[in-house]
Amino acid sequence: MFDKIKNLLSQDIGIDLGTANTLVFVREHGIVLNEPSVVAVNAETNKVLAVGAEAKRMLGRTPGNIKAIRPMRDGVIADFEITEEMIRYFIEKVRNRRKAFPPRVLIAVPSGITEVESRAVEESTLRAGAREIHLIEEPMAAAIGVGIPVQEPGGNMIVDIGGGTSEVAVISLAGIVESKSNKSGSGGGDGMDNAIIQYMKRAYSLLIGDRTAEQLKIQVGSAYKLEEELSMEVKGRDLMGGLPKTVNVSSEEIREALMDPVSGIVDAVRVTLERCPPELSSDLVDRGIVLAGAGALLRGLDRLISEETGLPVTVADEPADAVAKGTGHVLQEMDTLSKAVSSTSKRHQKKLTAKE
After folding, report:
1. Is the Cβ–Cβ distance between 188 and 295 less than 8 Å?
2. Three-state SS string across 233-268, please?
3. Is 241 buried (19+), middle (13-18) or exposed (0-12) by CB count in 10 A?
């Protein structure tokens, strides 16, 4: 009874704690925050100076005593203390002070997360001010967020392409039957950006930063031949002379640069399909594959995967918001869907509370 009262007098928050961006969903309000997962700190005192969008503007432009850090790597915590400060900042920014109790928090984590990594996420969130922690695997959250009927006994495939990872999962009866996760800096948007940076070095002896690489990916990047090819003017530093330099880059070149990370996503889909039980494979012929995550917006990726697998492929509406929306949907019915949340992974069946 007291738990129910606390739930009524507290706030429910869903967090898509991504490598590139963090999205926060507040129950009954929707997605209220979408900011880069970046923290700027004083290198001498380790004091946090800025978080989110303000900190990202400092990337590559800070003096020697200021470091702009991305504390998440491959979807998991790389810097425990900085991640804790970042989560605290985001929770405090959205928290309703009129609520009597600290918030319950549902966090989306990669499907391949280890026990140690999941514990790090839980402890960071508790220290940041949460009252109760629940974890849900990102593919499950993404599937719920795009409207896939995950509780039905039929097979559904979701491909969630985030900043640090790309995850492929076949879901049935509110559980992940088969999954494949690409990490190690090559599985998501970060891997694509790095591939573009390396290509510009090889092809033009031009050094560009992460932000420029991301702009290239968004403006002219593609996974499949375009009907009308694009081009973009790129500015950087000449590696030979050390002076600023401008070159014009075509979409064909960026497509070539993205070949390896895109092939990695396609291979992950193929491997998951090969491991999928035949009964569920037959469902996928009709239901197809759904792409979610910001990486799903890469031009022609749906067409390429469709050609490689022979299955229909669709890109979700607002794919970058899919995981956050999924946490929100679960939050709306947390008391009735808590079993479905815990069933996404045996490692996460036990909720963590501040008392523990």
Report:
1. yes
2. EEEEEECCCCCEEEEEEEHHHHHHHCHHHHHHHHHH
3. exposed
Query: Could you report the per-residue pLDDT of 144-155, keeping only the tens digit for each?
Result: 999 999 988 999
Cβ atoms of residues 232 and 249 within 8 Å: yes
**C-alpha pair distances (Å), 304 with each of 148, 226, 297, 356:** 22, 12, 13, 48
109 in helix, strand or coil? strand
Residue 53's nearest CA partner among 106, 85, 14, 90 is 90
Cα gap 27→20, rounded to integer Å? 23
Q: Quote the pLDDT of residue 77.
A: 84
Contact 39, 129 (CB under 8 A): no
What are the respective helix, strand and coil percentages of the chain, to the nearest 5?
Answer: 40, 25, 30
* Element containing residue 308 per DSSP (H, E): helix 301-309
Regarding whether 101 and 25 lie in a shared domain, the answer is yes
pLDDT value of position 131: 87
Tokens of 331: 């939050």
What is the residue range of 232's domain?
Answer: 189-258
What are the backbone dihedrals phi and psi of residue 335, each rounded to the nearest 5 degrees, phi first? -70, -30
Residues in the chain, how many? 356
User: Which segment of 59-63, 70-74, 335-339 scores lowest on mean pLDDT?
Assistant: 335-339
d(CA 266, CA 143): 19
327 and 209, same structural domain? no
Tell me, what DSSP letter sits at residue 222? B
| Co-location of 315 and 325 in the same domain | no
Domain count for the chain: 3
Beta strand 39-42 with 166-172 is: unpaired
Instruction: Extract the tokens encoding 10.
Output: 């507290």
Convert the pLDDT of each residue in 219-263 to its tens digit.
Answer: 999 999 999 999 999 999 999 999 999 999 999 999 999 999 999
